[in-house]
Amino acid sequence: MLRAEDFFSLEENRFKLLFADTEYAWEGLKKIKGFMEGHLQPNVKKLRAGSPLVEKTLVLWGGQILSSGFALDSSGKKTLVHKGGAVLKGASIIYAGSYLMDDDIYIGEDTIIEPTALIRGPAMIGDRTEVRHGAYIRGNVLVGDDCVVGHTTEIKSSVMLGGSKAGHFAYIGDSILGRVNLGAGTKLANLKMVDSPVTLNIGNRTYETGLRKFGAIIGDGVETGCNSVTTPGTLLAKNVILYPNGTARGFYPAGSLVKIKQDQEVYNLE
Q1: Which of 39, 82, 133, 168 is catalytic?
Q2: Rounded to whole angstroms, how far apart are CA atoms 248 and 186?
Q3: Cα(233)–Cα(217) distance, integer angstroms
Q4: Please, how many CA atoms are within 13 Å of residue 236, restricted to the half-sphere of its CB?
Q5: pLDDT (tens digit, 9 = 90+) per residue, 90-125?
Q6: What 8-state DSSP symbol labels residue 191?
Q7: Closest CA to 226 of 186, 180, 256, 198
Q8: What is the pLDDT of residues 194-220, one digit of tens each?
Q9: DSSP structural state of residue 18
Q10: Is 168 a residue of the active site?
Q11: Which of 54, 70, 121, 127 falls between 20 and 30 A from 198, CA-CA?
């Protein structure tokens, strides 16, 4: 019920080794740093050119860095890179005005880093992913394929396993996300007000996580509404729906519907 496999589909996931020899899904958080040490292959040193600020839009393609001789085509849903009349398949775009704060960063193929996004390593960013304007990747972050780290979204010490969308104004701290969609303003709080590790009370059992900072485990298919909040140590199993303005605390089984009760008064102003 609380294994990683109970929350996520991991068969072909690039980060599945995080959960090797684990009993509970949250144990993957303890293995992020070790995973980085064994798998991070940084590829941004030449992009940085000694400065965190990317001053000119660059293209990363096939291990090459292109600073000129290409054209960007934004006429469709996806921005394409053209060179010599051909589309450069797998080319990633790092826009001028983005910040790469150190060399310990990997950027995958067909990925876009928009202006004013800030990435602090260690960080791995997968393929076909968008890091949008004003996003803040704060270190010890694994972002998988087909993800969105959106406008003014902050993420630290967390994992987006793939197909994970946090498009607007989110905070993701010490959390693991599957193929989910976070509504605008979703906050995954990761630190208790009381100075003690996060414990989970599920059924008649207490689980000692050993984690002082622990946000949420968000299973595949979960949808959170705008301005929703999870308290430290929240577990949302597959296909849970958390309504707008709602607060989730504890464990919610697959398919749960979480909403707040509201009494609405309607006035006729005519």
Answers
A1: 168
A2: 11
A3: 8
A4: 34
A5: 999 999 999 999 999 999 999 999 999 999 999 999
A6: B
A7: 186
A8: 999 999 999 999 999 999 999 999 999
A9: G
A10: yes
A11: 121
